[in-house]
Design goal:
This protein has 30 helices and eleven strands. It is extended and about 95 Å long. It is mainly alpha-helical.
Length: 696
């Protein structure tokens, strides 16, 4: 009764309270007719909300939590060097005891935590775990007397949530660790202790199991032939021709003369033992500290052969030469200046170390070799950052241009068709790509991929009945159009008409079967958005690039293609203008004060984040900052996802809003740089009383 009603010491800590003197409340002995309902004892009770809570009298007597325990990671004098490194032992409950001490530091990191949480769409549970991990990391930093968080501190965390390294890196609190980046393989979790080596019972080889894999297979194969070996006398063991596995292997390697001796060669059981870092140091204790590269300086190449880097995946590399160390130090400074993530730096430094150790630090590296190493080691991130670093140093031979996914799709689709039809489709692709019409506009492979998708079913039907597209009639074309409805019919009509017009131009068909055929389609009018959906659009993100993209689209109806192709030379800060270069001309956007302020904020952030980037585009990311490529179209469209909108809907709403204020389509052409046909569509939508059909 005392435990369940008033004694909080027994309620929260029954083991400790059992050793203390206690008092009990005198009670009345009630008659048997009056019964009390029994209550469950324990730390928690099930309440009406379905959760377990402590009772009110116990919560009122709960001792106050200690939020700044001086025994946990006491701060040391800054700059004080330790005589010998001591291992960190950080536990989960230590974070609760440090929150008051590091309140100011955690408040400064909250904007970065919010940014990482919004960017990767992480849960509230991740936020709590990240705050605890950051508190432990900062407390261990203060206890070591350092200004920055060392990599060994992060490895000692009880559980490191994803994104903690990125928060410290963005805040400039992560110390660069060159040796750790080039000497340790990248890892995602703390290494588990390896089992102790032991000897195989049959062959006495040094491994981790009582019997190695080879001997296990030998036992299974020769289980019925057991006895003592006729050469070494060991046994009973599985035998083949009277000899054990070791003696059989030595006879195969040394010849029949080995039967005259009885010694056995001790071996290591399998390649897995070499992966153990502690064992590797013992096995290679007598190796030289420095090893020259495999290819000597000045050695000429007779012919180029694609290298197979797979044997180096589990090999132990020699200690790097001074030129290799200098190259790795330059790469560490480069990644630090560009604020690379630590895990990406480690994986790229591993690739660079392998390539420089094998080929030499002063050689010119092939991009194909770096990409092959990236596939072998399964490194994080992309290799183009390392390629950009070597390209700036003049130590890179670029690979041949790779085919895009759309071009590869087109070639695969054409190759799967019958031979004669495949040649005709290839001719059509060549005509659209400008092979026979050099002054004609070239069609990109993305459009060709869509055309081939629209033509998939008609071509599948024609290839079963015809051997050439010359046999296709107007009835076949009409059947292909009527097989689908709505926008699909118009899309198929555009692709089929393009195909036969190109074949007629190349004189591969006598008559164009699509001539004179027309497909009507339903014209979709632009729609407006509710005002409440656009309210507070800029407040949905704190990222400068995202805010600039939202402002340019919502206020100036900028398209995603214009944003991707915008370069720094097209930004006229003194005039508050942006110059968009398009295939059909140029368009100048006059910025308002809000957009101009967001543009200045992004330029300052861009220079602070990537001061040495060679990318001339206005919008860059962590991936494109190390190259000259524009941002992806998906990056621009994802900026509107947190608000539940799309770029196309926001842009159409802005143009439609301007069309309501004027009936002049020329005004829309001048303000937004759209075509007169598109401008008339918006004018007819905003002013339906104006007569006439909507232009197509």
């Amino acid at each position: 009764m005392a435990i369940t009603e008033y004694d909080a010491a027994w309620y929260y800590e029954p083991v400790r309270a059992a050793r203390l003197p206690v008092w009990t409340q005198l009670s009345f002995c009630l008659p048997a007719s009056i019964r009390r309902q029994a209550k469950a004892t324990g730390t928690y009770r099930l309440q009406t909300d379905g959760r377990y809570h402590a009772p009110g009298w116990a919560r009122a007597q709960r001792p106050a939590a200690v939020l700044d325990d001086g025994r946990v990671c006491p701060p040391a004098v800054r700059g004080l060097m330790a005589m010998f490194p001591a291992p960190y032992r950080l536990l989960e409950h230590h974070a609760v005891l440090l929150r008051d001490r590091l309140q100011d530091d955690l408040e400064r990191l909250k904007p970065l935590i919010n940014e990482i949480q919004a960017e990767h769409r992480l849960s509230r549970t991740w936020r709590v775990s990240a705050m605890d991990a950051l508190a432990l990391a900062l407390a261990a930093r203060d206890a070591a007397g350092h200004d920055l968080v060392d990599a060994t501190i992060l490895d000692a965390l009880p559980h490191r949530p994803s994104g903690v390294t990125a928060v410290l890196n963005k805040a400039g609190l992560l110390a660069p660790d060159i040796e750790h980046g080039v000497a340790v393989l990248p890892h995602a979790r703390r290494a588990r202790p390896q089992p102790q080596p032991r000897s195989c019972d049959d062959c006495l080889s040094w491994g981790r199991n009582h019997i190695c894999e080879a001997c296990r297979y030998w036992r299974h194969t020769y289980a019925d032939q057991r006895g003592c070996c006729s050469r070494c006398g060991a046994g009973p063991l599985p035998l083949r021709n009277g000899r054990c596995r070791d003696c059989t292997r030595q006879r195969r390697q040394l010849g029949p003369d080995a039967d005259a001796s009885t010694w056995r060669q001790l071996r290591f059981a399998g390649p897995s033992l070499v992966n153990d870092s502690a064992t590797r140091r013992e096995l290679h204790a007598d190796r030289p500290e420095l090893s020259p590269p495999a290819i000597l300086e000045g050695q000429a190449t007779i012919f180029e052969v694609e290298r197979d880097w797979r044997p180096l995946a589990g090999a132990l590399l020699p200690a790097p030469l001074p030129p290799v160390k200098s190259l790795l130090a330059d790469f560490a400074r480069y990644t630090s200046e560009n604020r690379w993530d630590r895990s990406v730096h480690e994986s790229s430094a591993r690739i660079l170390r392998v390539a420089a150790t094998w080929l030499g630090a002063d050689t010119v590296f092939r991009e194909d070799d770096l990409r092959a190493l990236h596939r072998v080691f399964g490194s994080l991130g992309r290799v183009r950052g390392l390629v950009a670093f070597l390209d700036q140093r003049g130590q890179l031979v670029a690979s041949s241009p790779r085919r895009s996914r759309d071009e590869a799709f087109a070639q695969r689709t054409i190759a799967a068709l019958p031979p004669r039809i495949s040649d005709e489709i290839g001719t059509w692709v060549g005509v659209l790509r400008g092979a026979s019409r050099p002054h004609h506009r070239v069609t990109d492979y993305a459009t060709l991929r869509r055309y081939l998708i629209y033509l998939a079913k008609p071509l599948a039907d024609w290839t079963t009945r015809y051997t050439t597209l010359r046999q296709v009639t107007e009835a076949d074309i009409t059947a292909a159009f009527t097989a689908v409805k709505g926008p699909r019919a118009h899309e198929r009509a555009v692709a089929v008409r393009s195909l036969f017009r190109a074949l007629k131009h190349a004189k591969l068909v006598f008559v164009d079967p699509t001539r004179g055929l027309h497909i009507t389609r339903q014209e979709l009018l632009p729609t407006t958005l509710a005002p409440d959906r656009l309210a507070g659009l800029l407040e949905t993100s704190s990222n400068p690039a995202t805010r600039l993209v939202l402002a340019l689209v919502a206020l100036h109806a900028t398209s995603g293609t214009d944003l991707r192709n915008l370069v720094l030379s097209d930004v006229l800060l003194t005039r508050q203008q942006l110059l968009f270069r398009r295939p059909h001309g140029r368009h100048v956007v006059h910025l308002d004060d809000t957009t101009a302020a967001l543009l200045h904020a992004w330029l300052r952030y861009r220079h602070q984040r990537w001061p040495r980037t060679v990318n001339s585009h206005l919008l860059v990311t962590q991936q494109t900052a190390n190259s000259t490529d524009p941002i992806s179209a998906d990056y621009v469209s994802r900026r509107f996802a947190p608000a539940g909108l799309t770029l196309r809907a926001v842009r159409a709403d802005r143009i439609l809003d301007e069309a309501r204020e004027t009936e002049d389509p020329v005004h829309l052409v001048r303000v937004f740089g759209i075509s007169i046909t598109t401008a008339m569509k918006y004018i007819h939508t905003a002013h339906p009383h104006r007569g006439g059909p909507i232009p197509r």
